[in-house]
Amino acid sequence: MDTASTAELPDVIAEVRGKLGMITLNRPKALNALSLAMVRDLLATLLAWQKDESILGVAIRGSNRDGVFGAFCAGGDIRFLHAAGSGGNPQLEDFFTEEYALNHLIHHFGKPYIAFMDGIVMGGGMGISQGGSLRIVTERTKMAMPETAIGLFPDVGGGYFLSRCPGAVGEWLALSGDTIGAGDALAFGLADGCMPAEQQAELWETLATTDFANVEALNAVVRSRFVAVESKSAAHRAEIDRCFAQPTVAAIEQALDAGSDWARAVAATLRKRSPLMLHVVLEQIRRARRMTLSEDLRMERDMVRHCFYLRPGQSETLEGIRALAVDKDHSPRWNPARIEEVGDAQWLAFFDSPWPAYSHPLAMLKD
């Protein structure tokens, strides 16, 4: 593929080269944020390739304004979510149902799924990479689930994969939305290997042009490129586990405030987030530890419905997106305004399913 001509190509470029199905996310001006059309293209492509016996595996990468790699995927299209949620567009419901079905398919794909997680990998970008069999990070990787900054929660299976990080790392990443690099991603089980960013193009071409005898040969070629990398958060692990294992959001904030400079900075971050959604997210991560992926995705589908419709005219998500991406005043008016003002009934309501089990939009998902 000629990188100079990607501007004329669709937002999802799917091609079969050799024994691999190869996908390039091609919406660089939006950091490859996923639209409903992109979710549908990805789903249709992967379902076809899953059944095609001539395709040994899949590789997926992002693109940037100057060519390929450099940015993987910054998440879902939050401007669309704001417009759809504000205007009653039913495609809002379609987006989450189909995105979560896509996330589930990737986890259960049954063939190698190699994600080149270069540059920004956030939100929905994690959803289309965490289910992969080989998740590759680079020295440029900026990984996060930053949804609490927009009054949302780490969805796309975030409850499932964050809750399986060691210790209380999942609570830290989910509540704060802090960004981590390659070393932490590996240490926390959110990546399988790191390779130098400059070597990605060569590996991509090798995958496309090698007549692999089997899956093992394919995996071996990828793994042979991996290099050692240091975890930058290792020094804070004991403090993370101690503070974020506290039973409530208020107790977590108090423990952080009593800690190191780093911990106090995290506490300051939490105070900028939606107090209501912090309570919802803490419960999400802790429930998800006992759930299968399908159960977690169904729970998250319930939760996201409530994010937009539980409190008409008072959606924390619409307010968070407004402040960050629409009006860009960076002054969300959260309701309640303080962590101490959130009542149990307010956050517990997010976990009541709007559907009977047999009518759930993700009832078909199996583990």
UniProtKB/TrEMBL annotation:
Keyword tags:
Hydrolase
Supply the Pfam families for this chain.
Answer: ECH_2
Is the Hydrolase keyword given for this protein? yes
Q: Where is the Enoyl-CoA hydratase/isomerase domain?
A: 21-351
Reply yes or no: does the keyword Hydrolase apply.
yes
- Protein name stated in the entry: Enoyl-CoA hydratase/isomerase family protein
Q: Which organism is it from?
A: Comamonas guangdongensis
